[in-house]
Every structure is written in C-alpha cells, then in structure tokens.
Design brief:
Layout: H1 10-30, H2 37-55, E1 61-67, H3 73-81, E2 99-103, H4 109-115, E3 122-125, H5 134-137, E4 140-144, H6 153-162, E5 168-173, H7 181-194, E6 198-202, H8 210-227, E7 234-236, H9 245-258, H10 261-277, H11 292-303, H12 305-317, H13 331-345, H14 351-360, H15 364-376, H16 389-442
Parallel strand pairs: 1-4, 1-5, 2-3, 5-6, 6-7
Antiparallel strand pairs: 2-4
Helix pairs in contact: 1-2, 1-10, 1-16, 2-10, 10-16, 11-13, 11-16, 12-16, 13-15, 14-16, 15-16
Amino acid sequence: MSVSFDMVGPSDDAAALAARVERLRSSLEWAREAIPAGIREELVAAIDRCDERLRLGIDFTVVALAGGTGSGKSSLFNAITGGSFAVAGAARPTTSEVSAAVWGPDPAEPLLDWLEIGRGHRHHLAQTELDDDFTRLRGLVLLDLPDHDSVDPANRALVDRIAPRVDLLLWVMDPQKYADDAIHTQYLESAAETGHPSLVVLNHVDRLSTEDAWEVVRDLQRLLSLDGLHEVPVLPASARTGQGVDVLRAELEGAVQARTVAADAVASDLVDAGRTLERALSRDAEPVLPDVRELVDSLAAAAGVDARAEAVGAVVAGRSHAIPDLPPMRVEVAERERLDWVDAASEGLPVTWRIVIAEAVAPGPRLAEEITSALATVGWPSAEKHPTWWGRRAAASRASQATREAGREAIARVVAPLLVEPTELIHQAYRNLDELTVYARAQKPVSPGADAPASA
C-alpha cells in the first residue's frame, strides 16, 4: 500500500484559498447579525485559523502524532526523528506538553508560536544530525501530542486545540485498543466529515504474529471505512524494532515534497466551516434583486412626478396655465415602498436575512427626505405653450415624457445608494457564504489514497 500526494503549485493553492477566506471574512462582517451567535463564533474561529495558517505560509507541513494511552506515539516520534526528544512510556509527564521536531532552521518559529509549542520542547534537526533523508524531509514539523484519552482533562483539551491547526493527522493505534469507541466517534468520524488529511499507523505489530497482524490490519481498515475514511491506509509499524518506520518516513517525505497537504488542511477547515454554516442558510436559496425600475416608478408616482408631467403636458398643449409645486414626499409612503422592497429582496432567505437587509437599507424618513431634496433641485424641461395648434399635441407628449424621465432619474440617483447598493452587498455576502456550503457539499474527503490493506 502506498499513499499518493498530488504535486500542485503551493502558491496557487494558497492564493486561491486566501481569496476565499478573505471573501468569507468580508461577507461575515456584512451579514454578521444574520448568523446565530454560536455559529458565527465557530465561523470566525475557522476563518481566523485558516487566515493565520496561510499567512504563515504552506512551505512547512505540520504532522501530528495522535492517539491513546499506550499507543506508542512518543516512541514512534523518536523512531522517525532518530533521536530521543519525546519522553516515552511510564516516564512520560502528565502535564500538557507537546514536543516538536523541525526539519529545517528558524523560519518555523512563527508557526511554532502559533501552535503554542513551548520553547523548551522545540527541536530543530540539522543536516549533520540525520542521514541523507534530511533534504527530503526539509519543511516537516512533527508534533507528539498528549494522549487523547488521558486522565488529565488538560491533555484532551490540548489535543482538541492543536488538532484543527495541523496539516496532517497521523493516528497511532495499539493492537489492543484500536477499536476503542472514543477515538473513532470523537476524532476519526470528524476527520472523515471534513476531509482533514489523515494517515493511520498500527504500532506494536512486533507483539503479534504475522497472521494476527494481518487480521488486525483488515479489521482496522473495516472500522475506518465505517468512520467514513474509505481511502485512508493502515501502515503497520513497530517503533521498538523499526519495522515499517522506513515506509512511514517515505510517506511523510511524499507529503512534504508534494507541498499541498497544508493547503488541503486549510481546505478541510473551510469544508467544516461550510457545514456549520449550512444551519444558518436555506438550501438552494438564490437572492434576487427586486425590479429597480418598478420601485422608481412607484416612488415617482407617490412623489407627484407623474402629476407634474401631466400638468406640464397640459400647459404645453394650451389646456392649462399652471404647474403645481411638488409636495414633500410622505414618510409613510416611502416606508411602505421600502418595506415592499425588503420583502421582495429577502424572499426565500432565512428570516434573519430579512432583518439584516431591513437594517442595511435607509429608513423611510431618510428616503423621503432625500427624494424631496433631489426633486427640488431637478432642472425640469421647459413648459412653454407651443405656438402652433398643429404642433401642440406632439410637443405636449414630449414635454410630459421628459418631465417623467427627469423625475425618475433624480429618484434613481437617490435609491441607488440608499436601497439598491446595500441590498446588493447583502445578497453578495449571502452568495459568498452559500458558496462555502456548496463547496463543502461538493468535497470528498481529502485523504491519501490506498489500493489494498498493507501487509504486516
């Protein structure tokens, strides 16, 4: 069995993901009140996490060894690094600590700071300390996490905090506890749902016969499929004897050299955020901007523009001698048109989005005031009586139409910034957020592929 990682340009991945994250942040700011507080907090945390990980760059690949008590994570950590950096077995401290080994120099420090790895638990591996594999692993940050099932709740909290931040989760299983419900229901099923890049190692195979090891590998592969991790391989290994460690190191080399795992991890975080966001959006809803021309026509009629146009036509035709002044726009009429606009603009959306649109657009009193002021400064077309009887009818029609157009243009200039543009921004925010849910539904787990169970 071999894991494959696609060679994709990391800068392109990072740029596309960064653009998506920025759109989501901007959209969430515009429509924050439309999202329930609990969901909003989860989204903000995910966006901040993705933004920070991308800002730190995806040249480093963060891999975390995770698992339960007795799985041998620390021994495997030491076997991979070729050192003795992590305290293994009964001597392992009960305090919440994470050890980190970095194949490369100091540029990883900001990343380690973000991961909150203690200064005394950072180990930078130099070229002279390792064999020729160093170059192939350059850029790897390997973490040894506390036991997820530790009696110390601080250890579990530390695992829960760090796991979403790493790029590749390497789950270390013990042959005696590989079916433990806690790791499957609390972690592996979640990894399957989000597509967080994952690998599984069955450690301590030296304690089993070849036949028994094969049986455990097959059963663990079955359980992973039930979790939803259909394409995640099981790599048998023994930290004590070194069996399988070279295969595991080769897979880590593939992940580091492909340089896409960090981008995949950010993408999986966005998938998880999208599934969270689905609870605040309506499936398949598409916000539609109401007919702006219809709105302008209604406001123009209510403001007296149509009546003025008729009066102008009558004067030009010689049927009248006076054009009445336009009265101030009535607030209750402006508010009624505004509410009709909000209703149409929020049709099909969750009710919270109607509230957001209603708060984003101008209130009725301001709309009425702005329309009144705009109409008071319009340069109205001439309303002089046409000198000939034969030309009066056509001239009256032209004057009436020009008056209508002048009034409507003035009102359109008012409603654009007060109603139309804020609505368009909220609609775009909805589309951007909905795009995340669609993206989440479309994604399959981003996990390494496997062809067949590995042999022990």
